[in-house]
From TrEMBL, chain A:
It comes from Halolamina salina. Pfam families: Trm112p. This is Methytransferase partner Trm112. PANTHER family: PROTEIN PREY, MITOCHONDRIAL (PTHR33505:SF4), ZGC:162634 (PTHR33505). InterPro entries: Trm112-like.
TrEMBL record, chain B:
One of its GO terms (molecular function) is S-adenosylmethionine-dependent methyltransferase activity. Residues 1-25 are annotated as: Disordered. Signal peptide: none annotated. One of its GO terms (biological process) is methylation. This is HemK2/MTQ2 family protein methyltransferase. Its EC number is 2.1.1.-. Belongs to the eukaryotic/archaeal PrmC-related family. It comes from Halolamina salina. PROSITE patterns: N6_MTASE. NCBIfam families: hemK_rel_arch, PRK14968.1-1. InterPro entries: DNA_methylase_N6_adenine_CS (IPR002052), Euk-Arch_PrmC-MTase (IPR052190), PrmC-related (IPR004557), SAM-dependent_MTases_sf (IPR029063), Small_mtfrase_dom (IPR007848). SUPFAM superfamilies: S-adenosyl-L-methionine-dependent methyltransferases. Pfam families: MTS.
């Protein structure tokens, strides 16, 4: 994901802003990292360049 | 129309789909065609599937984002060079983010006892009414649209065209049919939804 996506994504549960912690970047994109809700503290993984913004109870089915 | 033809299983079989991601079909082509004419500004495709529609629309708009609940769909969209977000409908998008929202929803009416519970079923089934995903989509649409924003919604006669129009009006939108094509088992339309306004302010959609 590009960092500019931060402007338009939010916590799926309470709609508050997310904070980005990028672990791996490539060519201006975030490949792995986490997005953490600034209000409820729930964190969401970024894997293979795709943020997984499903609530925790829906996250693991694949 | 036979019962078999009206089920998600029947359509999936006719389309020869055994994969985990819905691939482009007539409905995708119709949505892409309408989007090429109407899409503007930052655009979201909800339930992008293979990402094909988003890829067609990308050259027409300054920015496009694709969302899907299916991780395999997100991967396919990203492989097409489309920014992908795994989320349920528009849950993870902030208020007023998009000028255009595109949605080709799962709309096949499905008997609950016949659902087969995999990614393809989720991509096709609109529940018993065919409108199970359309209702929450319309409920949340006004939140993610920027002022003056619009949505292009694919509607099949199988999901009930008039029922969907009524739901759109109830959610405060004016539905305008901008495309229509008939096929042996269904008629597909694209509804362009804009906010119903009175005196320049969004209203509840009804004149008292």
């Amino acid at each position: 994901m590009k960092e500019s996506l931060m402007e338009i994504v939010c916590c799926p549960m309470d709609k508050h802003d997310l904070e980005l912690d990028a672990a791996e970047r490539d060519d201006g994109e975030i490949i792995t990292g986490t997005l953490t809700c600034t209000d409820c503290g729930e964190s969401y993984p970024i894997e293979d360049g795709i943020p997984n913004l499903l609530p925790p109870d829906m996250r693991d089915e694949a | 129309m036979t019962d078999e033809a009206s089920t998600a299983a029947g359509l999936a079989e006719r389309r020869g789909e055994e994969t985990k991601v819905y691939q482009p079909a007539e409905d995708s082509g119709l949505l892409a065609d309408a989007a090429a004419e109407f899409a503007r500004g930052r655009t979201l495709e909800v339930g992008t599937g293979s990402g094909w529609v988003a890829e067609q629309v990308a050259p027409e708009v300054p920015e496009i984002v694709a969302a899907d609940v299916n991780p395999h769909a997100c991967q396919q969209a990203r492989e097409r060079g489309i920014e992908a977000v795994r989320t349920n409908l528009m849950d993870a998008f902030a208020e007023g983010s998009f000028e255009t929202v595109l949605f080709n929803p799962p709309y096949l009416p499905t008997d609950p006892e016949n659902e087969w519970d995999d990614w393809m079923e989720q991509a096709l089934s609109g529940g018993e009414s065919g409108r199970e995903l359309i209702e929450p989509f319309l409920d949340d649409l006004g939140r993610v649209l920027a002022p003056g924003g619009q949505a292009l919604l694919l509607v099949s006669s199988l999901a009930g065209f008039e029922e969907v129009e009524e739901l759109a009006r109830d959610a405060g939108f004016v539905p305008e049919e901008v495309r229509q094509e008939s096929y042996p088992f269904e008629t597909l339309s694209i509804l362009r939804l804009t906010r119903f306004t009175l005196c320049g302010k969004p209203s509840s959609g009804k004149i008292d």
